[in-house]
Write a structure and sequence with these properties.
The protein is 25% helix and 24% strand. It is globular and about 60 Å long. It has a seven-stranded antiparallel sheet, with no helix packed on it. A five-stranded antiparallel sheet has the order 4-3-2-1-5. The longest helix has 31 residues. The protein folds into two domains: 32 residues; 238 residues, no CATH class.
Length: 271
């Protein structure tokens, strides 16, 4: 049917385009992670120095961070986590899911395993979104309840999930007022287990997903996304953006999830 619709030459072109989308990021990753690349165990894991001291930021705060994963997987995927701070709290809380030790009985959910703005295996963290003040304060209680009720607290699977991005997506769905869109490179965000229909992570639309392997979603924040074997292709008309595997979101308009001036200043100083 596909061959009749597109014709054999057209089908070959579609396959070549899809292979290019896969092999392009993978080839770049192989160059970047060649023999001279430091092993992950010796890579930088400390703070990037992007966050102000908690005492200098009295408002309640919810932040979503992401950084490229290690090795060839980093060509396609990021590791994401969430940072919380209650109003006037003396410290930030970093919550995430990791696979290390889960097979030995350790929980997948970790609190403050690293600094809230830490590098991930040598890859710089990126602030995906930030919400402050009363909106964040209201959402924090919902996020804490979602952490306690996370259905895969003792499971981890890099692909298609449940993984770190599955966890963050689960928390964001619990607080749709935040309207936070995860990057298309957050592979695992579309894993919803045995639930075929679920809200998009931003809570501004819905998706149909077959265990995170095949699906489609449409939302005010994300636009239209198609999930093929965990890889996301999409278009966001509101921000004149397209979404490609490995490359992520390419847009002509700046998102309104921009970090606060304090974070921007520290990022420029650390670069």
């Amino acid at each position: 049917m596909i061959a009749r619709r597109f014709g054999v030459p057209g089908l070959k072109i579609l396959l070549l385009v899809f292979l290019a989308l896969l092999l392009g990021p993978l080839g770049c990753s192989m160059i970047a992670n060649g023999p001279g690349r430091e092993h992950w165990s010796r890579a930088r894991w400390g703070s990037a120095g992007l966050l102000p001291e908690p005492r200098d930021h009295p408002d309640a705060l919810v932040q979503v961070w992401a950084a490229r994963t290690w090795g060839w997987k980093g060509a396609f995927a990021v590791h994401s986590w969430i940072v919380l701070k209650e109003e006037n709290a003396p410290e930030y809380e970093r919550w995430e899911v990791v696979g290390w030790g889960v097979d030995r009985g350790l929980p997948a959910i970790r609190r403050n395993m690293r600094a809230p703005d830490a590098y991930w295996a040598g890859n710089a963290p990126e602030l995906v979104a930030e919400r402050k003040g009363p909106l964040a304060a209201e959402a924090i209680a919902k996020i804490r309840a979602a952490i306690a009720g996370y259905p895969w607290a003792d499971r981890y699977l890099t692909w298609p999930g449940p993984n770190s991005n599955t966890f963050v997506a689960h928390l964001l769905r619990a607080a749709p007022e935040l309207a936070v869109e995860l990057p298309p490179t957050a592979i695992g965000k579309d894993f919803t287990g045995l639930t075929p229909v679920a809200p998009m992570p931003s809570g501004t639309g819905y998706q149909v997903s077959l265990a995170g392997l095949l699906g489609i979603g449409i939302a005010a924040r994300e636009g239209l996304e198609v999930n093929l074997m965990g890889l996301v292709l999409g278009v966001d008309p509101a921000d004149l953006a397209i979404k490609l595997p490995g490359l992520g979101r390419l847009g002509l308009r700046e998102r309104d999830d921009a970090p606060s001036p304090a974070v921007i200043d520290r990022a420029e100083g650390a670069s």
